[in-house]
Design a protein that fits this description.
Blueprint lengths: L1 H17 L12 H7 L11 H11 L2
């Protein structure tokens, strides 16, 4: 379930970015996903590559 939510968040954010949307509010029912994106939680002391991609999209201005 977490993996699917990560992909959904990434694809949605990427699509918004490609369409020129710069302000986007993203929500998730999975607290662990939000914590991972915000940098408050890691898996085995590492940040998964897909989470890094989401973080990169989040940091683009």
């Amino acid at each position: 379930m977490l993996h699917g939510e990560m992909w959904g968040m990434y694809i949605g954010m990427d699509l918004a970015r490609r369409q020129g949307i710069t302000q986007l509010q993203v929500e998730s029912d999975l607290k662990v996903l939000v914590d991972m994106v915000m940098g408050n939680c890691k898996v085995n002391e590492r940040t998964p590559p897909l989470i890094r991609r989401i973080q990169d999209l989040n940091n683009m201005n």
